[in-house]
Every structure is written in C-alpha cells, then in structure tokens.
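anyone seen this seq b4? input:
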Amino acid sequence: MKILLSAYYCSPYRGGESAVGWNVATGLAKHHEITVICGDLSSDSPTGHEIQRFKEEQGLPPGLEIHHVQAEGLTLKIHDAHSLPGLWFLYYAAYRRWQLQALDLARQLHAGKPFDLVHHVNVIGFREPGYLWQMGIPFFWGPVTGAPMVPPAFLADFGPKERFRWGSRNFLNRLQIRLGGRPAQAARAATKVWGVSQEDRDALASWGVTAEPMLETGAAPPLARPPRSRAAGEPLRICWSGLFQGIKALPVLLRAIAASPAKEEMLLEVLGDGPEAARWRSLATSLGLDSRIHWHGMLPRDQALEVMNTSHVLVHSSVKEGAPHVVLEALSMGMPVICHDACGMGTAVTPACGIKVPLVDPATSTAGFGAALDRLISTPGLLGELSAGASQRASELTWESNILRFDAAYRQAVGNR
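predicted toks r here
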C-alpha cells in the first residue's frame, strides 16, 4: 500500500517523539511504500538537518520517502514568540499553521501519487490531530495521549511552579475534552484511533469514539535470562528512576518504605536528580531511611542499566506520564514493576508482570506501594512469577508488535473499501 504518515517529530538520532516517528516509519517501510511529512518550527531546523545527515551517511531504507516542511514567515515568528513569558500558548498556534502547510503538501503529493490511507503519528497529544483527516481517504490517528490529569491531592506535594503548571493544565484538559472541537471532529472521522491510557480512551469515548489500547513507544525484545530471585537474607533491591520533580512522586515511595514493618529488608536504589533533590533527601533523612537508600544521581545509560539489572523490582511512582520508557526497559530485563494504575504505565503493566496501585491521593498510594512491597517480601515465588511475566509482556510491547497491529488495521480498512 501507499501510505502517508504525518510525523512532525521524526529523527534517527533522538529519543522521545522523534524516535516514535522514525521507528514507525522505518518499521512500516518493511511492508509498504511509506511517505513521511516531518518538519521544524525553529529556524535552526534540527529535524531537517538530521534527516539530511542520515541520507548522506546511510541512505533511507527501501520503501521510505521523507518530505521536510520548514516553518517560514509569520509561522516562524509566532513560534519564536512563544518562549516569551506568558506566551507559551503561541506554540500551538504556530504548530497549527505548520499543519496547514503539511496539508497543502499532502494534497500535492496525493494528486501526483494517490495514497491508500493517511496516519497521524505525532505530535501524539490529543489536542492536535492536524488536518490530514480532511483528505478524503482512510485516516488513522495515534497512539494518542495527553488526557490524564494529576489528581489535585498530589499538587500539595509539588513545588510552587509545578503546582501552578499542572493545576492549570488540569483545568485546560477538562475544558478541551468537554468542548471537543477539531480533535473530536478528527477522531470521529478516523477509521481507527489508538489511545495510550485508559484516561485517553475515556476522553475519546466522550466524543463517541472507541479507541484501542496501544503505547506510543516500543519495548526492546526481552533479554534471555532466568527469572529474578532473591536469596535468603538478601534485601529486596528496589530501583526507582526519574527526574526529581513533583509528578514523579518519589515521596510516596519513601513514606511507603518508612511505614513498612519490613523496611529493614528493603534497599532502595535511586537513579536521577533534579530540582526536588534537596527536599527529597531531607525527607528521606527525616523518615530515618538514610541507611536504606543509595542515591546514585544521574548515571550514564550503561551504568544506570547495570543498577537496574542488579535490582529485583522497579517502582515507578509517577502520577503523570505517557508511556514511561524506563518501565519498558524494566520489562525487557525481566524486572517486575510496581506503579500507579494510570497513564501509559497502567496500560503497559498487567497483573502478570507487576502490581498496580489506584491513583487517588498520596495516602492511598503510600499504603498501596507499601502493601505491594510487603507482598513481594512475604510471598515466596511471587518475584519469580512476575519476572517471567515481565519478559512475556515485553515481547508483546515491542516496536514490531505495534507495526504489525498498524498493518492489520490498514489492510482491513483498505480491504473494506
């Protein structure tokens, strides 16, 4: 099939949404003729330069064609102004103008070489589906995310800036989901929509659209290794990894360990750093946990993976995420995950590979994480069972599995036509 992908972010050299665009495009190019429209709002054009560099150094894989759209004129000026204090919203105005440029190019390409379908891959936020759904061919959207909100009870544990940021974002999310507008029109026009989290799928359902669960990113194939186990007398090694900022909610885990009757059997390995470092270290000291924690700071990737490899379980306490890459890394290493039953981690983790805690308020989370850790310590064999389940789950969440699901949906839609 001849397929058009809208992937504003697309690069072989970067992670995040750029990796999403690149992996989806190159994966689909193994099966179909893929044309990608990507671009830049900034004048230094990082995506354009990176695509050109890859073409010169390695050449695009067979079946893949990439068109780069550079913002110019008024669009560029609007984007540049969004960095001024209080004008952050201008980013979305500039991005919408870029999407109209992308639509013009898409129509030109479609006139010369008609496409069988179009897929809006990213930006992945539900607020911005672009305009390619107006092309009159089957339209696919997703995986979509951005709808999950931070429960208000958690905001009290944030610093002032984060409290304002996430509190205002909650308000805007509720308003935009309720009003619907162009995103709701695009979703209703879509042949198929995928949603990362249950919250994303609920938002789409409020617009009358049923979305299928899928993470926007992919796991590495699971490593061949025996299930994890804990020797007699060995402490339960708990790994936590992330930026030290409010939404990561490390204090929930610290309080859970401090309140556990089995805390002397636990050892916490903390990877990361950030603005909340001093406050969180002070909290750990006040809870009497200094002897139970190793603060590793920001380690190079290979060293961080080694810490994960020697741990028994990953605790991901975040209250707001898309699909956390560290969770997928843990699963591919056969590491069980304890997390909130929300956002992307709520979709990635199942009862076979981890333990999920309701996302309600800090007290509920503290009790839930504590109970999960106590259960791992007191239940013989549970660690090994969840470890085997983690490897199995990773095999279900690879990039290739996502590509095959896209392919099946495309074939069904074109076949129905």
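The chain has a mean pLDDT of 93. The chain has 16 helices and 13 strands. kinda curious what u guys think
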